User: What shape does this take?
Amino acid sequence: MEITEDELYARLQIWRAAGIGPASLNRLLNYFGSAVAALVASDTAISQAGLKSDTIQNLRAVPAEASAADLEWLHRAAHRHILVPEDSRYPKLLRDLKAAPPILFVAGKPELLNEPQLAMVGSRTPTTYGKDNAYAFAQYLAKHGLSVTSGLALGIDAASHQGALEAGGSTIAVIATGLDIMYPTKNRNLAEQIVEQGAIVSEFPIGVKPQAKNFPRRNRIISGLSLGTLVVEAALQSGSLVTAQHAIEQGREVFAIPGSIHSPLAHGCHRLIRQGAKLVETAADILEELAPQLQAYLGLDLSTKDTPTSQILKPPKPLSFLEEVKTQGNAEERSEASLDAEEQQILATIGLEPLPIDQIVIQTGLTTDVVSSMLLMLELQGYITACGGGRYKRL
Assistant: This one.
């Protein structure tokens, strides 16, 4: 179902009024039948619809041409979109939420919003360990068909987006400003890549600048779009815990990666785990936990092979991980044929006894950087495990 441009303009006008949130706009639509009718209604009628006097004053204070900027932005490029709940492209996981945004501004590919997603969040100032984990987890998950959703912030967010992009998968960034404003500016190039390969989403009109109060609102969309939220690394006061709380309230899965008991950036994850979040050590752990949700989301019966995978997710996103979750329960059953030559070389060097990383470097002839990166990927995929002191062994 499509709405007219006049109706869209009227909703944009109402949405720009201070004090108007999803509940207020929906209340007006339900009472008057349309935003066009609500805008021309008397103050008395709007009050009867449930809006307070100060909110009505704010609505009247919105300049008549305010939303022209939104439509100008929309029509300036083919990859720009404004979605309302009546639009079939509006994400179905968001539509049923109590605080679902009534308007979404999208730059990129709106069809991705209805594909299975995992939210990945964490510290803006992560450790190297946390940043590497975010990149590797996102890369693995994107290769196996999940879109990676995050907030385009520095640190864990950026590493998560980059990992998904490097895997040739898709990633979705939800921001807390208008889509004409790049924040933080350091991620401008990353944002351009996301528009080409994924989508950037905001509920905030064009021209809205960064404000601290808007970031928690943004976080509910990150979790709401996704089947689950993975907290990679977070302090106790991190905004990532707000995203996790939204996920819990929305009935989504919450995952957390444990870290050192001595690292403040692990304390947030440890608190979540104590409160019931699922501890994950490999990206495959997430896929296994999400299998029932993916089955319900995609309408699949994993007990049969009647549905061709080509009809489930668009290339290059095969549904191989669903079959993998069903038929492969541990690392021993995973085929090593899918590994590249260097990964197989490292894996062949490591035995059942812990081997120091410097010995792996010597025996393989690879650089320390390459070995470190490959070890992380092999660990995330469940082939090896870290034994402490920079040593690794086969599982």
Q: What stands out?
A: Residues 302-334 have pLDDT under 50 and may be disordered. DSSP finds 18 helices and twelve strands in the chain. Residues 1-66 form a domain with the DNA polymerase; domain 1 fold (CATH 1.10.150).
